[in-house]
Amino acid sequence: MIRRSLRYAEELSEALQRQLATAYRSKDLLAWGLRQRLREGYTVKDFRADLLSALVVGVVALPLSMALAIASGVEPQRGLYTAIVAGITVSLLGGTRYQVTGPTAAFVVILVPIVTKFGVAGLLVAGFIAGVILVIMGLARFGKLMQFVPHPVTTGFTMGIAVVIGLLQLKDALGVSVGFPKTEGTFEYLGALWDLRGSINYWEVGIAVFTIAGLVLLPRVLRAVPAPLVALTGAALLVVLLYQVAPDSWHFHVMTIGDRFSYPLGGGQMGHGIPPLPPMPVLPWHETSTLHEVPFTLDFHTIRELLPAGFAIAMLGAIESLMAAVVADGMSGTRHEPNSELIALGIANILCPFFGGIAATGALARTATNIRAGARSPFSATMHSVFVLACTIALAPLVSYLPMAALAGLLIVVARNMSEARHFVRLLRIAPRHDVMVMLTCFVLTVVFDMVIAVTVGVVLAALLFMRRMSVLTNVELETESSLKVEVPAGVRVYELAGPLFFGAAKSAMEAIHTVGDKKDHTYILDMQHVPTMDATGLVALESVLDRLRRSKIKVIFSGLRPEVGEMFERAGIKREPGKVAYAPDVETAISMAIVHAARELSSPVQAPHA
Q1: 587 to each of 14, 199, 524, 575, how far by Cα in Å?
Q2: Domain spans, the chain
Q3: Residue 578: left (phi > 0), alpha (psi -120 to 50), or beta?
Q4: Above pLDDT 70, what percent of the chain?
Q5: Could you tell me which residue, 142 or 124, shows the higher pLDDT?
Q6: What is the CATH number assigned to the segment(s) 475-603?
Q7: Torsion angle of alpha carbons 29, 35, 39, 42, nearest 10°?
């Protein structure tokens, strides 16, 4: 069973290496998904299907983009600008056919602390840094490596993000003002909410509950119409109606987008809601906000402080986007090019700050909606962005009537859907203990601290988990005649090395080769046909074993060396030495060589006096 598992792991490793080599030789990474689709042909019927799916996704993306921008601590129009710029860029330049890119809930937890400390300008610069990192990752062909992030790490992140997003919406759902949340920590924020429990606006609570009920119940009745469109429109109409009919004694008041946000009109006048303008070119480091007046200076010190945040945005964006691409492949029966997707996502995050947009990544829910609505090509995601652009210009006056509590209810439902609480609880019950500890660590760090710390620790835990699992696969066993089905003469030991000899497993594996065995031992055969690769640490550990065996006057015969390992041996100077080191193509030949060596050893004392 172990050998069969190891052979499967070796075949998988070799297949992965071939895929990486193919990706490395490819020079046509940009627009990979679009080019693959156009080669199959594109008809008017396909365009019509893309247009209809774009309208459906656009209706979903419009309120969600604004809600996510507000949750991140910036003006709602910045979420729309992100959906427009990133949606067009990634759909045309990326490596998928149906991926929809824009602001996502996963980024909220990262962006809030950045806005708090550095303001909008710092947030945009951090997004730019993330874009550069993503482009580098794509050019370095790291796309395939993202699939090795362990499931417990991503599950812990996802559950933690969902909890934090839900908590951050409580202030708007309850109608209380606690300043900007997450400034000091989750517990301080919850404490501030508790202190303000006497000032809860129950009208706001009612609007939030009305919206949540609509978002949960409407999909069971109206499958053809997006639930957010009906629920949010209904909440806005209800607020407008109550303003007209509610008597003064009811003290009716609900915060809307028009009440919360404003923009300059010129001449010292201010408009309310969002500006009816497309995204305009700006310098990110000069951007300001009416919400948070935080001074920002672009210098080396500031960039150094923003680097961890940029890295966290890049890593989380890459993981979420490629996970969404994998899910989309499963739903549509297509395949994606991960490196092309990372490069396009990086370019989008580089461009977005120069149009006032925040960080973007692949949106799983919008991508799934795009596929279910009948999308045929990347043009669907492109046209969804054009639809959002048209609505930004045409519907800006109406947006100001949307209640903040309704948008909070929308994000609470989004957090509920992304949490997959049942799956999280199931893993707590059935997963191995070390996986549970990793998952809980990522969850707690996300909730209690922030995503910069959580992503950094999560990446390290992912590497440690990978090393641990690979070290379990790597082992050294003493072979017997029954397992070899070949007679092993006295004085010969056959060790089978199986698995990659890398820094996480080399030392423990080499310790299994005993240098002090039977005093009659004269030859050790190291069967390495199941060693697919070796790194410098494995080489040093093996050389240490060779030195000990030489001092014990034991000859070593390597059998079944893979070409890659053989080339490393040659570069390291581990060459044939008569009576010390030899090579054989297989174990049977190695045993025959050991018998010959033993015969020479036995004859040498007799021949020595005549020499």
Answers
A1: 23, 81, 11, 19
A2: 2-151+185-254+269-419, 423-473, 475-603
A3: beta
A4: 86
A5: 124
A6: 3.30.750.24
A7: 170
